[in-house]
Amino acid sequence: MRAKITYCVTAAVLVVYFVLVGSRGVLLIEHGTALTITFGVAVLVLPLIGIWFLWKNTQFVARANRLAAELDAEGGLPVDTLVRTAGGRIDRDSADAVFAERRAEAEDSPDDWRCWFRLAIAYHDARDTPRARKAMQRAIALRDGKPVRV
Q1: Is the distance from CB of 137 to CB of 146 less than 8 angstroms?
Q2: Phi/psi at 84 (5° precision)
Q3: SS3 148
Q4: What is the rounded radius of gyration, in angstroms, for the C-alpha atoms of the chain?
Q5: Tens digits of per-residue pLDDT, 15-53?
Q6: For FRET with 78, which of 8, 19, 123, 125 sits at 20 to 30 Å CA-CA?
Q7: Who's near 120: CB < 8 A, 6+ residues apart?
Q8: What are the DSSP calls for 113-150, one per residue?
Q9: How far apart are CA 113 and CA 87, in angstroms?
């Protein structure tokens, strides 16, 4: 729940920032000189890119949450048995052991989105965010019946 609140607050702050930057771009364009119009258009591009990125990220999170809910309803979410340090961080050796199991599971069933979902969680626990995201994207594509890039 805390992660959802943090995401929503961050997204709201970004939207406010995009509006402020966009208004500055409009003011530059309204000034009317060639230089200010050029800068104004350039300034307007930044919020557009930011909005696109925020939208794509929000879609990804919503799809991943949908998969998590479906897997939870099936009773297929992985049980957290990871060893943690006194500060609450996941022990690296513990995460690596679980990761090896999840990777073997995904290799045995490469077309099962459930295996890729669990592998994405294992990547995340092992602090490999880029691979966790790619594994989750693959799980989403497999679940939606879309072609998967290798």
Answers
A1: no
A2: -120, 150
A3: coil
A4: 21
A5: 999 999 999 999 999 998 999 999 999 999 999 999 999
A6: 8
A7: 64, 132, 133, 135, 136, 139
A8: HHHHHHHHHHHHHTT-HHHHHHHHHHHHHHHHT-----
A9: 33
Nearest-angstrom CA–CA distance, 125 and 129: 9
Q: Provide the H-helix boundaries in 32-128.
A: 34-74, 92-108, 113-125
Q: Measure CA of the first residue to CA of the last residue in the chain; give whole Å.
A: 33
CB atoms within 10 A of CB 50: 16
As given in the structure block, the two tokens for residue 50 are: 């930011």
Cβ proximity of 67 and 113 under 8 Å: yes
Contacts of 84 (CB under 8 A, 6+ apart): 90, 91
pTM listed for this prediction: 0.80
Helix (H) or strand (E) holding 2: helix 2-31
- Find the mean pLDDT for residues 62-80: 91
Sign of CA dihedral 35, 46, 128, 141: negative
* 3-state helix/strand/coil string of 32-43: CCHHHHHHHHHH
Q: Give yes or no for a contact between 139 and 110, defined as CB atoms under 8 angstroms apart.
A: no
Quote the longest CA-to-CA distance of the chain: 63
* Residue position matching structure tokens 């709201």: 12
